[in-house]
Here is the input.
Amino acid sequence: MGTGNLFLVGMMGAGKTTLGKSLATRLHREFVDTDRALVERTGVQVATIFEIEGEEGFRRREAAVLAEICAHDDRVVATGGGVVLAEGNRTRMRESGTVVYLRARLESLWERTHLDTTRPLLSTPDPRARIAELLQEREPLYQAAAHIVVDTGSQSAATLVNRVLAALREHNPAAGYP
Here is the structure.
């Protein structure tokens, strides 16, 4: 296709990985999850990296993985929720493809993540309040990074894929998205 990479950004629980796999299948592209790539490279879970190196160490590693991914083309990339915190990451994604912000409401994010014990940023006495805090902090950064914003909700993955494809066609009619 030659349209660059397709980056999915948004909060943890927004559906980036689930949607990314479905989009990659529909677009006949390789799917890459930055968190999974980081785990494969280090041999340890994200929570372990946070524990040993702190969030700053994790973010450094995340930026390096993103830079490697951006050296390739025509991939569907599910990013970690905090990838937008670094301005360099936002710029790199925008320059090497199209960035889609999957915007989800706090209630949906809480419903999708509250039972997940693998998310280090939610290991707090009040994880729901933490999600609200992260969402407030990151929302302007997701908006700044995104070429396209798609609201997620209770619709099926297939419906969301169709909504994202429609938004991509509108954003770049010449790209030939199905």
Observations:
- Helices lie at 16-27, 34-42, 46-70, 87-95, 106-113, 127-145, 157-171.
- The chain has a mean pLDDT of 88.
- The first helix runs from residue 16 to 27.
- The chain is about 55% helix and 15% strand.
